[in-house]
Specification:
- The chain is an alpha+beta fold.
- The protein has a single domain, classed as 2-Layer Sandwich (archaeoglobus fulgidus dsm 4304 fold).
- The protein is built from 3 helices and 6 strands, in the order E-H-E-E-E-H-E-E-H.
- The chain has a 4-stranded antiparallel β-sheet with strand order 1-4-3-2, with helices on both faces.
- Strand 2 and strand 3 form a beta hairpin.
- The longest helix has 17 residues.
- The model has no long low-confidence stretch (mean pLDDT 86).
- It is found in: Cytoplasm.
- GO terms for molecular function: RNA endonuclease activity producing 5'-phosphomonoesters, hydrolytic mechanism; single-stranded RNA binding.
- InterPro entries: Endonuclease-V (IPR007581).
- Keywords: Cytoplasm, Endonuclease, Hydrolase, Nuclease.
């Protein structure tokens, strides 16, 4: 929706989608090899050599990494800077807030 309104945006996820031959396991191995420490980034490049996004090793554990995509009207470096600024402890605050809202809504429906 934001991209349709010409606003800068990028996607953030706790899980990497399987795209162009890239799997969660491969990305975790990539993080362990190239960004093993807390607050390090590594670009995710597809089999067709296209930059898909980046992994942010927020805690120092590849299993807890956050993934973000190449954005609309925003470069990957800027998206990474934003992720770093809005992270608190081991989570991105906006992602945590959305997760909490979703959990509360699901609980209300059950």
């Amino acid at each position: 929706m934001a991209s349709a309104s010409s606003r800068s945006c990028f996607a953030v996820s706790k899980n990497i989608p399987v795209i162009d031959g890239i799997t969660q396991e491969q990305v975790e191995q990539l993080i362990a090899a190239r960004a093993p420490s807390e607050h390090q980034f590594v670009e995710i490049i597809s089999d067709s050599e296209r930059t898909l996004g980046s992994a942010y090793n927020i805690t120092g554990s590849p299993k807890n990494a956050i993934y973000f995509s190449v954005g609309h009207k925003i470069i990957l470096q800027t998206a990474g800077d934003i992720c770093k600024r809005v992270s608190k402890l081991s989570i991105l605050v906006p992602v945590h807030e959305v997760d909490q809202i979703n959990r509360n809504l699901l609980a209300a429906f059950n």
